[in-house]
Amino acid sequence: MPDSSLLAPESLGATISIGEILVEIMAVTRGAGFLEPQELIGPYPSGAPAIFIDQCARIGGSAGAVGSVGDDDFGRLNVGRLQRDGADVSAIRVDTVYPTGSAFVRYRTDDARDFVYNIAHSAAERIEWTDAVGALIARAGHLHVMGTALSMPSVWALIEVAAPRIRARGGSISLDPNLRKELTVDEQVRARFEHLIEMTDLLLPSGEELERAACVAGKYQALDTLFEHGVREVVLKRGADGAQLFGRDGTCIEAPAFHVCELDPTGAGDCFGGAYVACRRLGIDAAESLTYASAAGARNVTYRGPMEGAGSREELNDFIRQTPRSR
Amino acid sequence: MPDSSLLAPESLGATISIGEILVEIMAVTRGAGFLEPQELIGPYPSGAPAIFIDQCARIGGSAGAVGSVGDDDFGRLNVGRLQRDGADVSAIRVDTVYPTGSAFVRYRTDDARDFVYNIAHSAAERIEWTDAVGALIARAGHLHVMGTALSMPSVWALIEVAAPRIRARGGSISLDPNLRKELTVDEQVRARFEHLIEMTDLLLPSGEELERAACVAGKYQALDTLFEHGVREVVLKRGADGAQLFGRDGTCIEAPAFHVCELDPTGAGDCFGGAYVACRRLGIDAAESLTYASAAGARNVTYRGPMEGAGSREELNDFIRQTPRSR
User: Fold this and answer.
1) Bridge partners, B42 (sequence order)
2) DSSP strand pairing (A38-46 vs B38-46)
3) Which of A182, A188, B13, B41 could form an SS bridge with B141, CB 3.0 to 4.6 Å?
């Protein structure tokens, strides 16, 4: 039986994330990069931690973002969207010097993606401790960490403080490892990752990230290793192959994928995670939470833009009723 | 009679500019800013000094750009375009840390423009002295300066060295004051401007910039003041009211505007300047140069994108034949 006390209840305080807030601009046509003028669409609010929080709020969880945007329309777009969707934006700093971070993305015909980024020299990584950040952390009931945060010094500095504080007040922690195979993981990041795993209640890897997170070959060996390190539940996101929940007590629940026509996969994993954490914290049982999470991820890929398809509980109920599943 | 030796001849070496290289991304629809996702088009190669040089090269002048781009598709787009159009790109530095500068622009219904910039924290302002820059300056015959360069420390540092060197070898200097009324001009910029005016052969102001450049009220008083300070010729760009040339010897030539349907005014003044300087340096007389310049500016506004309408000599000849003028 899945552990119903896995995550701290909604009543303890908001689910928060700490990390990059961006706009995304997408090429309309497929092809190689941005070497000629072309049709684009955007700016879309983006940044994995922000997508997570937006979906969390849309489905009815209390949620807040710690981040930084520029004093420009791209920043206002992001803050406005999160606010409209019910998220707490009090701890989003407006940087008056650096612009809001941005990412241009174009899909190639083989589904690979080309990017042009402006993140490192943008407001996105200029996250700092403010009274508002301290206040949000002091009333948070759950912290969700994106693995990418481990290689952003300003983000890690806050997570290092926030994680033990939130745990000390009875809060819980989830981690999306984001250990994509194209990323090289240096020793420092690995050490941070291991430090965080010890505090993680819920791990949300995609595909082969499970084995990379455990540093062990073999799916079940990886699960054993993670459970030994203190993780209480692993929810494995497998895209069109559906999702699987593994509990430390041996529980296993399988959720078949929804069949959708994919328009834009960006943000699917973050919507999945945001919906799952919100549902569990709202007291919805693990199997139903997994269905909502799968629906949130699937619905989001039918919309162009990283968080355009984040659904409310009602929209996800409709989606679940209307969308065929693998079995 | 206009002074046929106003600018150094083509044979002395290339016309060069020093300054920002950017991409521009335009909103397709009119409206206020970038507060929601929308249709965009871009990236277009841009940056006033780059537009000037591109038009200069396209019309057949030898021309080169000193600037800096990021190691990304936006940088490659800019360098590729300038190279394709015949400009010397040897002194464009590729910055491996900062991204290529970018500007998002949207027209409001009243023709005012909203921008989101990423220039100050981009490669665009990270221009530095390199051997390639030194070599290009050493073989340059003319320097064109954008007034905006005066408030960019890294750009001004190079101009301060380049201007006297180019003059010392018999080269000439043109200046587009860019003293838009919305810009506040601090004392340091004013001092730089006055220093540069003493070396300027050709001044290319738009509308009310003439009086602002001279710090004097009244068009003719402004001209007198500028001529006293060493300027030899002033070409006043008046958009749909045509252009006027004033020589220090009292010459006045008027060039009526071409009647075009304006699609995107960005870059018109830079194309005007690039064509004018190239023509004069190629030995084309002042009146005909003024016609080419007016045609280059007018043709460019019929294209979307800041330098998409920069025309070759043949294209401009066709444009001149086919386009009605004010009288």
Assistant:
1) A38
2) antiparallel
3) B13
Categorize the per-residue pLDDT at A183 as very low, low, confident or very high, splitting at 50, 70 and 90: low
Number of structural domains (chain B) is 1
Residue A281 lies in a domain: yes
A2 inside domain: no
Examine residue A199 and state whether it is found in any structural domain, yes or no: yes
CATH number at residue A253: 3.40.1190.20
Q: Which domain holds residue B214?
A: 10-19+47-98+128-322
Chain A closest-CA separation from residue B77 CA (Å): 5
**Tens digit of pLDDT for each residue in B130-153?**
999 999 999 999 999 999 899 899
Task: Compute the distance between CA of residue A293 and CA of residue A268 in angstroms, rounded to an integer.
Answer: 10
Among chain A residues, CA nearest to B305: A37
Give me the phi and psi of B140, to 5 degrees please: -85, 145
Q: What is the ipTM of this complex?
A: 0.88
CB-CB neighbours of B160 under 10 Å: 12
Residue A224 has pLDDT above 80, yes or no: yes
Task: Evaluate if residue B204 carries a pLDDT over 80.
Answer: yes
- Give the phi and the psi of residue B176 in degrees, each rounded to 5: -100, 110
Provide the shortest C-alpha distance from residue A42 to chain B (in Å).
Answer: 4
Best to test chain A binding among B24, B69, B72, B95 (most A CBs inside 10 Å): B72
Neighbouring C-beta atoms of residue A8, cutoff 10 Å: 23
How many CA atoms does the CB half-sphere of B310 hold within 13 Å? 36
Residues B135 and B92: their CA atoms lie apart, in Å, by 12
Answer whether residue B282 is part of any domain: yes
Which tokens sit at B60?
A: 């057949």
**A43: chain B residues, CB-CB within 8 Å:** 34, 37, 104
Structure tokens at B199: 């070396």
Contact A48, A119 (CB under 8 A): no
Nearest to A40 among B42, B80, B308 (CB): B42
Three-state DSSP class for residue A215? coil
